[in-house]
From TrEMBL:
Sequence similarity: Belongs to the glycosyl hydrolase 16 family.
Processing after translation: Contains at least one intrachain disulfide bond essential for its enzymatic activity.
Enzyme Commission number(s) from the entry: 2.4.1.207
Protein name: Xyloglucan endotransglucosylase/hydrolase
Source organism of the structure: Jatropha curcas (Barbados nut)
Amino acid sequence: MATSTLLMQMQLLVSLMMVNSALSGNFYQEFDMLWGNGKANILNNGELVTLSLDKDSGSGFQSKQEYLFGKVNMQLKLVSGNSAGTVTSYYLSSKGSSWDEIDFEFLGNLSGDPYTVHTNVITQGKRDREQQFHLWFDPTVDFHTYSILWNPLAIVFLIDGTPIRQFKNLKSKGIQFPNNQPMRQYSSLWNADDWATRGGVIKTDWRYAPFTASFRNFSGQVCVWSNGVSSCNNLKSPSSRPSSYKWLKEELQPTSLQRLRWVRNNYMIYNYCTDTKRFPQGLPPECAFEI
């Protein structure tokens, strides 16, 4: 009987360990430096990452684990001064030719101009869902928190807790939604002066190199994907779901929707859902359901 009880306790402990998918916040534990010839560095005992870009190379890192749904947060301090032509990215992506992706990209600027936040949702390799915003603060002076909520109901992009974009799951209406391919989290700093600043008109001025962006306080709750199984598989029943997993059913409430509209009304500078020149045969179907 004692052996049976001990076995049950061990099985329960293993189950709880699988369910506990809170991210540690330590970059040594959560990420691998991916590329950049030493330009991607983990500092302060794993609490900070700096990425650098010069004329030879940019740099980047990726999460050790794959996720199938999650709510992740990262604090970024973007390249200061004349950052025209540079792109700092923070995104989730799967692999393959029919990949899914959820993008935050921060497009550099001439000193004094506002940063542009470029967002995109790619499903099964389908792009063309860009929305762009200007920030209502200087993102180079201090760290700000950029979050991605990805659950079975929607994808939400947030800045310092303020939602700026929502992409709902409309698969019931025949619109693709990323819900079956696990993704890793990536961040990078790279040169994109063929398109990033004013459509590529303004080129990177290498006299200001090396350019540097900083990342810290990575946190969140995720469904870890391992050996074809999600750590959230045993959380499908509401009665079995810990309170820490309420994000799996999280939706924007009226107050958050009001803040989302405030951002759209005051800071949105491009929306594919209003670009009739780009889509002369008709706007993408999800645009009919946009807020």
